[in-house]
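Hey team,

Filing this mostly as a record. A colleague (T.K.) asked me to run one chain through the structure pipeline before their review meeting, and I want the input and output archived in the tracker in case anyone asks later how it was produced. No errors, nothing strange. Just documentation.

Input sequence:
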Amino acid sequence: MPTLFDPLTAGELQLANRIVMAPLTRNRSPGAVPQPRAATYYAQRATAGLLVSEGVAISQQGQGYADVPGLYAPEQVEGWKRVTAAVHAAGGRIVAQIWHVGRVSHVSLQPDGRAPVAPSAIRANSKTFLVDAGGNGGFVATSEPRALEQAEIPGILDDYRRAARAAIEAGFDGVEIHGANGYLVDQFLRSGSNRRGDGYGGGIENRARFLDEVVAAVAGEIGGGRTGIRISPVTPANDVSDPEPQPLFEHVARALAKHGLAFVHVIEGATGGPRDNLPFDYAALKRAYREAGGSGAWIANNGYDRALAERAVASGYADAVAFGKLFISNPDLVRRLRENAPLNAWDAKTFYGGGDHGYIDYPTLD
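Output structure:
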């Protein structure tokens, strides 16, 4: 039986173990440019089999939070080169999570103060993070979005394609498409946020069309073997909902299978919350993917501890397990899990924004 500490092949990615660092927004990239301390942060955690970067905006329109990094300007690519070089020097593998937030944004973050875009003009009952002129950060309500014109969609697909190429130029080993947590791809999927009357709305096949086109654009640019995707079938994050998540996401799984992806990363339950918020059969989801020919690694996420992760991998339920907040406070999480050592507690007050404290100063066992 495989263990958490056995190597894993995920498409073209050769991973030293089956412990994945989940994407974690930290709001420490002023001007959307990753800072030198980000290289330290990621390199400290490079013993993970795979690091998934914090969400990286594919365009200014795709940005939803202050001080999150991008991959649409030369200085951003240069900043990421320092990060990927540090991770590789430490023996790690890292992919960029490419991200368009859709309606989960604020006019102050958008080009020329325009409204955020969404599948439909339905405001999210959610919050975004802004930083004022004095450098103080806080959460505020999202802005009213406007519905995307169908003619605008090819331009967004091009933004995904360019961001994927930029990620490879910046030294990333691949990308993870952010298709979860109520952001743009997820907004198209869900009937609660997608009321369109064209080919991108209505039935499941139409609502899944945008996701399929994003995956095709990215995989076509950098290869399916360097492309992964994150999905969250029943999360209520950022005010998304759908009355029939099982058939919706089994359709998604079958559609993903044809792209030859490196991995599928699944958030089980409510993101950062209970794993059993709504009924959902994750084994059936994986089965739909495999039966349709999907061979990418299956990564499980949300609320896993050492024992649950060990059982998931040993049983074949998952090929790897992703950990989020535990990696914030435990740079050496892989060693701590291997040795069953005590874990550092995290300081939630330092999650978003700030400097070194709560970012690169958590202690290791040594």
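Quick notes for T.K.: The CA atoms of residues 195 and 228 lie 27 Å apart. The mean pLDDT is 97.
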